[in-house]
Structures are given as structure tokens and as C-alpha cells.
Amino acid sequence: MAGFGLHTQNTPAQDSWVVNVVYEYQNETMPHKIDINFVPDGTIDFSKTKKSDLEIVNTVMQPMITNVEIAAMRQGIVVDFWRVVNWLFVSSYWALLADLGQTTATTYPSLPSFQGYYLMDFSSPVHHPETNNIWVNDTLYGIYSELLLGTIMPLLGSPVPLATFAPLNETNRIHPTTTTFWRTYICSVRELKAPLPAMVSIIVSEYAFVKGAYGLFIFLASWYEKRKYRQRMVPFPILLTTGNVCEGCDSDDTVLLDACCDRCRHYV
Fold it and tell me: What's the DSSP call for residue 126?
């Protein structure tokens, strides 16, 4: 995995910037990280990059490098893998800033890390000059445009235009511009409904509430009636032995009292 360096001051706007290559062997659990430093013209900065580290990275990334070289051979060109990597990062970086109307980069120092996360101190911005901007520096513009026409486009199978890019000058260059961010969101405007749809909506909504309340009422009423019936029910043995029951036995009490008639007490 390759990417910009983790420290917040790493930017192609400087005279040297870093690509972090992180890899992990199959029999290991801890990843390894090697820094590949580049200078503005797209070549590797060997004053900060060890040749032994570069050899390790080339070995790890050999399958990818081989595929790129095979694709280049099919197009009849010779490719420098790491110059292509530098071109991808640097051109994307400056193109993104240009899209935002910027020609210079601003970075922020990092605060003490917390659980591996880097927080930036926005109160201390670091403004970098536009010296290494490929859309401003005529020399760098020529290097990167030549690599685009001679290597990148053939690798992608894109037709290469016959004409070259015009050199930069005071008019043919990118200038800082004010960029506006547009946000779109769903907005609902309240409007009165027509009488008939409004009446239908009200009836449907009220029906849901009335039906629920009516169902609850029926449930409670049924439960009450069943409970009342069980309290007034005469014991089954008495029903089997006598056809008539006195008023005391048919009262709301569930237990036969001593004050009941002789017939009920006899069978109790």
C-alpha cells in the first residue's frame, strides 16, 4: 500500500516529499513501512532514500512493476515505474488544488498524537510558495506534460494528440480564483390540499385512531364480562345434584356460606 506520508507537513509543494510504502509478509502480523522521497522533477531523492530500502520495495512490488513494464513494451515505450507513481500523486495533488481555485498549498502542524490519530493545529498554518506548482513552474510543466504524452497516455491506450501543450506564460497559466461551493438539498414547501383529497386524508387518519381505540374498548369490555361471569358461576357439583339454587348460592360470593339453605349445605 502506498500513500502520502502520515506527517501533516508532507506536500509536493516542498522541495522533497514522501510516499509511504507499507507492506506485510504472510507469516508476520506487524506491517513494515519504507519512505520513498521524491524531488519536484519526479525523480527519487537518494539523499533521503536508501538504495537498500528501494530494492526491498522493488522486490515487494515486483508483480505490479512487471505488469507495467509489459504494458509499456506492448506500446513500444520504456517506462520508469517510480516516475509514473510520482506523476500520479503530484498531478492529482495540484489538479485538486487548481479545481478549488488555489495555486499554493497550506499545511498545518500536527498536535501530539492520540491513539495513533494525528490532529492538526489549525491555529498555526504553514503557507507554501507556488514554486513547485506544475501549473505555474514552466520547467515542471514541461516535464509533467511530456511524461503525460509520452508515457501515461500510451499506457492507458489513449490516442496521443499530434500537437504539444503550449508553454506557460503570464496568460497561459493558472491564477488563484474564488471558488464557490454549491450545496443542494431536498426542500418541502407546505401547500393547502384540495378539499376532496384533504377530506380523504383526514378520514383515513382518523379511522386508524378510532379503529385502534374501538378495538381496545372491545377487548376490555370482553375481559370484564368474562371475569364477571366467572364470579357469578355456580359450582359444577351443585349443578349436577340440584336443579334450583337459592339466592345466597347465586350471589357474587364464590364460596357457599353457612347461611345458605339446607339443601345447599346438605350437598356441600
Answer: E
Q: What is the pLDDT of residue 185?
A: 74
Output the CA–CA distances (angstroms, integers) from residue 34 to 3, 48, 110, 195, 219, in the order listed.
Answer: 11, 11, 21, 73, 74
Contact present, 11 and 25 (Cβ < 8 Å): no
Residue 171 lies in a domain: no
Torsional class of 223: left (φ above 0), alpha (ψ -120 to 50), beta (otherwise): alpha
Number of domains in the chain: 3
Q: Which of 137, 156, 175 delimits the end of a domain? A: 156
Domain, as residue range, for 81: 2-156
In the chain, which residues have pLDDT < 50?
A: 1-3, 5-6, 243, 245, 250-259, 263-268
Identify whether 151 is part of a domain: yes
Q: What is the H or E stretch that residue 18 is in?
A: strand 17-23
